Amino acid sequence: MRLVGDNVEIGVYPLSKALEIADELELDLVEISPNANPPVCKVIDYKKFVYEQKKREKALKSKATKVIIKEIRFGPNTDDHDYQFKKKHAEKFLKDGAKLKAYVFFKGRSIIYKDQGEILLLRLAQELEDYGKVEQMPKLEGKRMIMFIAPKKK
Q1: Beta-sheet pairing, 132-141 with 144-151
Q2: Which domains are assigned to the chain?
Q3: Against a cut of 0.70, is the pTM above it?
Q4: What is the distance between the alpha carbons of residues 136 and 88, in angstroms, rounded to a whole number?
Q5: What gap in Å lies between CA 70 and CA 128, rounded to an integer?
Q6: Where is 124: in which H helix or E strand?
Q7: Are strands 99-105 and 144-151 parallel, antiparallel or unpaired?
Q8: pLDDT in tens for each of the 154 residues of the chain?
């Protein structure tokens, strides 16, 4: 097998000799690529290697951005004051960098007002265009009409 590692003379050794070298250095013999001809082994401290690998993965995970989705719910006949109040919250969410899911919920027979619901969502999209852009236009899914707005990049 081919032997690599720090403080080791790189070369091809029989298994017994490779194990002997690892024992002398008080390290572990780890097989890196078993499919190579001859197989490649490395002399390293295995526990330290695993620890550093976990540490690297944790650092990568912490740098990944998490997408936050905030929801705002309207009724088809939402009053103007309630609309303005919810619009202010929507502005704040978009300024903070969260995605916005605005939806109109139709209860019972209020489904006959789906055109009013769509007008409400389009009005919201138009008034929030300074803060974000529409990712998905209003779409009726069951008893909800849903629209997504993504924040604008700074």
Answers
A1: antiparallel
A2: 2-63 (3.10.20.80), 69-151 (3.30.110.10)
A3: no
A4: 21
A5: 15
A6: helix 114-127
A7: antiparallel
A8: 888 888 888 888 898 998 988 888 888 988 888 888 889 989 999 999 899 999 999 988 887 777 889 999 998 888 999 999 999 999 999 998 899 999 999 998 888 888 898 999 999 999 998 999 999 899 988 899 999 999 987 6
